[in-house]
Amino acid sequence: MSIVILVSNNKTKARISLMLTPKKYLNLDTSLLRVFSLLLRELQKRGVYEFDKLRAFVIRRVGPDGELSFLPALDLLFLLGRVEYHIKNDTLEYKAD
Predict the structure, then answer these.
(1) Cβ atoms within 10 Å, residue 59
(2) Average of pLDDT values for 69-83?
(3) Nearest Cα to Cα of residue 81 among 91, 96, 61
């Protein structure tokens, strides 16, 4: 993984760009996109899922390395507005719209 940061001078707009670039040794089975798609599909099926059970599901399907991509994939779902977290009962709910 490499991070590229671009900053321009005062005359133009400042732009900071973080970019994750794939490497030739990237395992696609444990990648963020695979874990993201597993989470999305499972949440679409069930609607509501307990946090620990969802994490265990990912680890069971992807392996121990899947835990590294679990939280970033969940963050991406939050950013896209597809899940809602309920603190009271520690569950994630899929939001269709």
Answers:
(1) 14
(2) 91
(3) 96
